[in-house]
Amino acid sequence: MNEARYQLGFVGGGKLAGSVIRGLLLKKFCPPEQIIVSEPNAETRAPLQNELGISIAGDNRRLAASAETIFFGVKPQLLLPILRDIADGLEHKLVVSLAAGVRIKNIEAVTPARVMRVMTNTPSVIGRAASALAAGSRTTSADREKIRTIFSTIGITVEVEDNEIDAVTALGGSGPAFVYTLIKAFSAGAIKAGLKNERDALQLAAQMVSGAAELAVTSGKTPEELIAMVVTPGGTTATGLHLMEQHSTTAGISAAVEAAAARGREMATENQ
After folding, report:
1. How many domains are there within the chain?
2. What digits encode the pLDDT tens for the residues 167-217?
């Protein structure tokens, strides 16, 4: 076995894995020369190499031989076939799946590696990720601490059971798209209410969501307490919240998370 030369390896450098890589470099977790990526798409690969200075592996086998900790940021249906193909190069390695809908037991069945799953999201690119990690049957306490440290560098991290990852996928992984939809709706409402500049409306909406979220994270207050800080009986906020109830806004958001989680469970049965 070749001696490991890289601290972190990534099979796949697309949207999610690329966000993690950029976030780790932003937060100076390690220098770019300590990361190696295997990515077949030239358009995706070029900025990683040319702009970030990351090493590119010629193939997945070379990457497996070059890094002790290997993240798999590939489509769920590709994960198990790739692992089967390079299984003989993964003994004594730590494999971390970033893929939705593929259970740890199915990953462990095709590789001798120690296995973990992490569900994170694209805000990792700015160090604001929401990540959850799940450990496999061969995972060591050192492995868990290492992965927790990596993802805590780019956001907040919780540890869950593997069967909870579908809910995390829906909340943390899909959630940003739901929030962006809300930002778009807030902006559209402001335009209809009389704000003329769409760019201003989007900027105000995005900052409002960011600030409210940060307050929710740092204040220690419950959502109900935070709402009470804003609402005045008979005022503008109370009127808006009443309309949200009439339109079942919160029920729709909850249903979106439930539907995304259900799709994650379906994918788990498809990827075995």
Report:
1. 2
2. 998 998 899 999 999 999 999 999 999 999 999 999 999 999 999 999 999
Q: Residues with Cβ < 8 Å from 72, sequence gap 6 or more?
A: 10, 11, 12, 79, 82, 83, 95, 96, 97, 98, 99
What span, in angstroms and rounded, lies between the C-alpha atoms of 210 and 201?
A: 14
Question: Where a domain ends, among 142, 169, 196?
Answer: 169
User: Which amino acid is present at 205?
Assistant: A
In the block, tokens 């005022």 appear at 235
State how far the Cα of 264 lies from the Cα of 206, in Å rounded to an integer.
28
pLDDT of residue 142 exceeding 80, the answer is: yes
Query: Looking at the domain assignment, is residue 272 inside a domain?
Result: no
Q: Which residues pair with 116 in a beta bridge?
A: 96, 135
CA distance 148 to 136: 14
Residues 28, 134, single domain; the answer is: yes
* DSSP letter, residue 232: -
